[in-house]
Specification:
Elongation Factor Tu (Ef-tu), domain 3; 13-stranded antiparallel β-sheet; 2 helices
């Protein structure tokens, strides 16, 4: 029986675009993750924020300081959110801003097909081994593709085309059900010349290479 299978309809893919208005940070609780306070910030799980101007080692520490870095946020409440950084032993003194990226939906998507994650195989066999021994290496989150109806007036498709032409790494957000998956990726393929046929619409496919981790919130 598949009556509990999760429906794919209403899943959406977004690309991060220009920065939104900065949110004022008024507190920080060191930990792993780190909790930042920003009254009535209006952010959501899976948003990406750039942190700046925190005074104290929580902001300025050369290894785990938050200033000048971007993070996917999670565990959002009305006045707080978390960033996945270990700041144990660091201190928050005052100030700070969190500037969110704004998201533009990539519309007219018909299907999204992830290639799947894999990890490399490291041979650790030595002369004391009685059989081959292995460890897992770094995870490669692979690629994903999307079939689309080409719509040149769509702001999301226009943003992906610009990213493709510039070979930039951009933040993306995929929402399905209650889950938000946020990641960075480079667009490897875009239908600059779409498929066209009688009694049909313009179609094409895109492909992205994921860079780094996928954050699920």
């Amino acid at each position: 029986m598949s009556i509990n299978a999760q429906l794919a309809q209403l899943s959406k893919l977004y690309i991060a675009s220009t920065a939104g208005g900065a949110k004022t940070i008024s507190g920080g609780a060191a930990g792993n993750p780190t909790i930042l306070t920003s009254t009535a910030h209006g952010l959501a799980n899976g948003d990406v924020v750039a942190v700046a101007s925190i005074t104290g080692t929580m902001g300025t520490d050369v290894t785990n300081g938050l200033n000048g870095k971007s993070f996917v946020i999670s565990n959002v409440t009305a006045n707080t959110f978390c960033v996945n950084v270990n700041t144990l032993g660091l201190t928050y003194t005052s100030g700070g801003t969190a500037t969110p990226a704004t998201w533009t939906q990539i519309k007219e998507i018909k299907s999204i097909k992830p290639g799947g994650a894999s990890s490399s195989k490291i041979d650790v066999t030595d002369l004391d081994s009685t059989a081959k021994e292995y460890r897992s290496g770094l995870i490669d989150n692979g690629t994903f593709s999307a079939d689309i109806n080409v719509l040149e007036s769509d702001a999301g498709q226009t943003a992906v085309l610009a990213a493709f032409l510039a070979s930039t790494v951009n933040n993306y957000k995929f929402t399905s059900g209650t889950k938000v998956r946020t990641f960075a990726a480079t667009c490897l393929k875009f239908p600059t010349a779409p498929d066209a046929s009688v009694d049909n619409v313009l179609t094409g496919s895109c492909e992205w290479q994921i860079s780094g981790t996928i954050t699920v919130s």
